[in-house]
Amino acid sequence: MHKHILTVVTLWCGLVWSMGVRAGDVEIVNVVAEHESNGWRFDVTLKHADEGWDHYADLWQVIAPNGEVLGERVLAHPHVNEQPFTRSLSGVAIPEGLDTVSVRARDTVHGVAAQVYEVKLVP
Description:
By secondary structure, the chain is of the alpha+beta class. Helices cover about 15% and strands about 45% of the residues. Strands 3, 4, 6, 7 and 8 form a five-stranded antiparallel beta sheet that branches. The longest helix is centred in the first third of the chain and has 20 residues, at about 1-20. It is elongated and about 40 Å long.
């Protein structure tokens, strides 16, 4: 009986440990939007448990309310030891009259995360 309980506890601990070390969806921690002479600059801070080249946050996008992608920043490499991290994109053209956009992010395993970060644009 004690051997059976030890086996169950060992299996349970292994399952909990493996779930904890697997990277989940990428999280958008913060977005700063600033109007510049050549369009808008977006500074996006992401958090993701990057594991290396096989699983890392690889993209974020600025999206109009109608779903149009207004700009995107491709993240060319994993940020395993740099979390959270901020990357910028300048020159994003925002259509006249648009005062709110959304930012979404993606990782190489789960795809586009469910989180959508809404940004109010203040000229």
